[in-house]
């Protein structure tokens, strides 16, 4: 094996390089943090109900069937743009009613079709969750997903 | 086994293998729900099964690393583990936390960020157990001989602990949440865990091939260097579509290419060393796993990961069954096989036997590796088709799922074969001894 690379040289490259890339990664992450807060997401509309809705989303572990901005379980549809898919941009009230009706009707019990459980959300929780999904649909994701199908 | 505290590894390995079985059973159940969607849908819905599947995986892999550390560190440092009592305390805490998580999931009590669903007090308990472990291991290393293997392992374990702390930060802004969530998830599996992997493989190669430690350790530094240089900024390939700036597109693509390098280097390293030594180690099964691990990691984590890491491709494939295909082979190749290799090597010493049940063990290798490969192929085909129908033709999600159902049948079939392989491994590792390798006359 190569003689020109000694063990101590390899060690120094490892430590030096790791510190370099860790610092770079940290700086870029901090910049992305700033970018998210000021450019790509709408901090002014991140209301308390959006924050509560995020906890409804988490408490019911929605991510372990659905995906949200492409991350999650691939068992059920993408929900990052569900607001758009339900026509929320044209008729906010219609989309809200449609989403509520859908969640209340679960499980469908249709044989051979994937079942969504009944989570028994209150009216308030449903509204918060929908606020969260509406807010999520307005994150600047550089055009992803390619179409309304998610 | 030269040091009696190495025996601490044994209960860790047993706990790890028990959770491995839980993981695979949950996987088979989830695969069954894919083809019989009404199965268990009211009692244990899919999201609960999946949480058990993924969480059991993470916990048993960690238990494997803990046990491997207790086995490996005394030999490397030439002294006993600092405190066996703390090691037992840590095991108790960790297993209790894992069982508490599973039980609370069954009752629908959990948090909701993927892979970090453990209730807060369970997370805290796990962090405490991890800190106890780090304290115990660090003191042992500091007091003993310092080798590159033990230092790299220690760095990997410290990194795993420190980056886990981001699990406690959950901002209300979803994009920020995702930004830091990857600091746990990506930096673990494509960063610091690779240090643990390389160190454990290095130890196995030193023991199995008898090649000079100097050579193995020099290349260990090169490999883990590549892992972190590429892996840290490689996080960029998760920052394409979640509200992060566009510069991550080229950073992510560039460093994703580099992420393949350490995996390929590990393949060359392992095969070159085995070729160099020309020695036949009596534990043939351990050798098979130790060579299989870098190969499958290279294909699963390296190549399959790279294929959909370019922004122009990932725009269409992101969050489809392709991700599931890559995830399965990557975890199996890199980390499951690593642990199974280590157990296969260490268990004869822990049970005070010559290498045993080797034929059965090697059968389990081919059964699990073969069925996981087939599962990956079927999910990859499903993913490509899904990508085309959903992302190009804009067909609805549920309609597509019924079109690709045949692939889910194949996946369930390969899952069942994997289960058989896993049971065979468990029996060959922990069950009664049916055959022992002839004691090598020369040694």
From TrEMBL, chain A:
InterPro entries: Cyt_c-like_dom, Cyt_c-like_dom_sf. Residues 48-137 form the Cytochrome c domain. Keywords: Heme, Iron, Membrane, Metal-binding, Transmembrane, Transmembrane helix. The chain crosses the membrane at residues 12-36. SUPFAM superfamilies: Cytochrome c (SSF46626). Gene3D superfamilies: Cytochrome c-like domain. The keyword Transmembrane helix applies. It comes from the Bacteria. It holds the Pfam family Cytochrom_C. GO terms for molecular function: electron transfer activity; heme binding; metal ion binding. This is Nitric oxide reductase, NorC subunit apoprotein. It comes from Nitrosomonas marina.
TrEMBL record, chain B:
Residues 8-443 form the Cytochrome oxidase subunit I profile domain. One of its GO terms (cellular component) is membrane. GO terms for biological process: aerobic respiration; electron transport coupled proton transport; respiratory electron transport chain. This is Nitric oxide reductase, NorB subunit apoprotein. It comes from the Bacteria. The chain crosses the membrane at residues 12-36, 56-74, 86-108, 120-142, 149-169, 181-206, 218-241, 247-275, 287-310, 330-350, 362-386, 406-427. PROSITE patterns: COX1 (PS50855). InterPro entries: Cyt_c_oxase-like_su1_dom, Cyt_c_oxase-like_su1_sf, Cyt_C_Oxase_1. Keywords: Electron transport, Membrane, Respiratory chain, Transmembrane, Transmembrane helix, Transport. GO terms for molecular function: cytochrome-c oxidase activity; heme binding. It holds the Pfam family COX1.
């Amino acid at each position: 094996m190569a003689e020109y690379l000694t063990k101590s040289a390899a060690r120094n490259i490892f430590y030096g390089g790791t510190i370099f890339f860790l610092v770079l990664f940290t700086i870029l992450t901090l910049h992305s943090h700033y970018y998210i807060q000021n450019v790509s997401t709408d901090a002014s509309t991140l209301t308390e109900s959006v924050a509560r809705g995020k906890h409804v989303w988490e408490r019911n572990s929605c991510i372990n069937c659905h995906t949200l901005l492409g991350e999650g379980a691939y068992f059920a549809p993408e929900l990052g743009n569900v607001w758009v898919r339900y026509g929320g941009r044209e008729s906010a009230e219609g989309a809200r009613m449609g989403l509520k009706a859908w969640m209340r009707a679960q499980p469908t019990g249709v044989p051979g079709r994937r079942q969504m459980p009944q989570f028994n959300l209150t009216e308030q929780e449903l509204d918060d969750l929908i606020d969260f999904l509406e807010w999520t649909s307005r994150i600047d994701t550089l055009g992803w997903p390619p179409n309304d199908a998610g | 086994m030269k040091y009696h505290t190495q025996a601490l590894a044994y209960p860790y390995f047993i706990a790890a293998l028990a959770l491995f079985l839980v993981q695979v059973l949950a996987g088979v159940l989830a695969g069954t729900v894919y083809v019989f969607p009404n199965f268990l849908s009211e009692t244990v819905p899919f999201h609960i099964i999946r949480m058990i599947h993924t969480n059991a995986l993470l916990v048993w892999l960690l238990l494997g690393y803990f046990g491997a550390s207790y086995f490996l560190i005394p030999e490397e440092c030439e002294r006993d583990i600092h405190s066996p009592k703390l090691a037992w305390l840590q095991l108790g805490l960790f297993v209790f936390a894992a069982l508490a998580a599973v039980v609370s999931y069954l009752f629908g009590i959990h948090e909701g960020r993927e892979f970090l669903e453990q209730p807060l007090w369970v997370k805290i308990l796990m962090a405490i157990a991890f800190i106890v472990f780090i304290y115990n291991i660090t003191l042992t290393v500091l007091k003993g001989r310092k080798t590159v293997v033990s230092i790299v392992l220690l760095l990997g374990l410290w990194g795993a602990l420190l980056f886990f702390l981001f699990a406690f930060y959950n901002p209300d802004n979803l994009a920020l949440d995702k930004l830091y969530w990857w600091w746990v998830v990506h930096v673990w599996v494509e960063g610091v865990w690779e240090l643990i992997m390389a160190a454990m493989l290095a130890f196995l190669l030193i023991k199995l091939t008898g090649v000079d430690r100097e050579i193995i350790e020099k290349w260990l530094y090169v490999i883990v260097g590549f892992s972190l240089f590429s892996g840290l900024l490689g996080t960029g390939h998760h920052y394409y579509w979640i509200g992060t700036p566009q510069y991550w597109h080229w950073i992510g693509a560039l460093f994703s290419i580099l992420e393949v390098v350490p995996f390929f280097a590990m393949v060359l390293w392992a095969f070159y060393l085995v070729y160099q030594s020309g020695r036949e180690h009596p534990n043939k099964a351990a050798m098979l796993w130790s060579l299989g691990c870098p190969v499958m990691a290279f294909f699963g984590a390296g190549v399959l990961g790279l294929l959909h890491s370019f922004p122009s491709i990932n725009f269409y494939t992101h969050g489809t069954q392709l991700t599931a295909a890559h995830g399965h082979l990557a975890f199996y190749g890199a980390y499951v096989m690593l642990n199974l290799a280590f157990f296969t090597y260490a268990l004869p010493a822990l049970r005070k036997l010559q290498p045993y049940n080797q034929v059965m063990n090697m059968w389990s290798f081919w059964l699990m590796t073969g069925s996981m490969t087939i599962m990956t192929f079927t999910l990859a085909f499903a993913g490509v088709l899904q990508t085309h129908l959903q992302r190009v033709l804009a067909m609805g999600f549920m309609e597509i799922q019924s079109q690709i159902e045949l692939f889910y049948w194949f996946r369930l079939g390969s899952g069942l074969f994997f289960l058989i392989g896993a049971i065979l491994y468990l029996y060959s590792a922990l069950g009664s001894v049916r055959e022992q390798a002839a004691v090598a006359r020369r040694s």
